[in-house]
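A common beginner's mistake is to predict each chain separately and then try to dock the pieces by hand. The better habit, illustrated here, is to supply every component at once so that their relative placement is modeled jointly.
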Amino acid sequence: QVQLVQSGSELKKPGASVKVSCKASGYTFTSYSMNWVRQAPGQGLEWMGWINTNTGNPTYAQGFTGRFVFSLDTSVSTAYLQISNLKAEDTAVYYCARSYGGDLDSWGQGTLVTVSS
Amino acid sequence: EIVMTQSPATLSVSPGERATLSCRASQTVGSNLAWYQQKPGQAPRLLIYGASTRATGIPARFSGSGSGTEFTLTISRLQSEDFAVYHCQQSNDWYTFGQGTKLEI
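With all components supplied together, the output reads:
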């Protein structure tokens, strides 16, 4: 069955960087795009952008340019989200979710990133 | 950016009753609308895509309707496991989500 398994929770200080992984299994990794979605505490879902798993070309939503980087290692069917220069407002759960067309049909379990001094 | 507005923010319904959740888009999204269910501490789960097509394994008591700018998710005969937060999402112009509707007992 399709599974997206994300790396564990992270506690980081302001200014540090974090890299979240999302390992896919149960399907052909390059047949689906990978998206990243943020959910701040008690808030709704925010689409951060997506990465083309065939070309590696990322697309970032408004508000997620500069400090956010999507990448892949197709040899291990894994997508990555790196956030640099972390700020307190980056504290959130980050989800990976695959898409084929418009809907996000499978989601990772989420990774909590906490930014605190 | 297309803004998605869900109403109400919170809906209180009794088990066995029907729930109707609304989602409005700031401009037309055609039928490029999905609904997700999210329970506390869990990832969202796709319920409906293409405005009205149930995702694999979703019970028939969940139904979606609408097109253009107005959409509805209806849950007939609510069961205890249906109390959760529901999000709508458009995919006509990149992706944007509504702020969610909390369905409570």
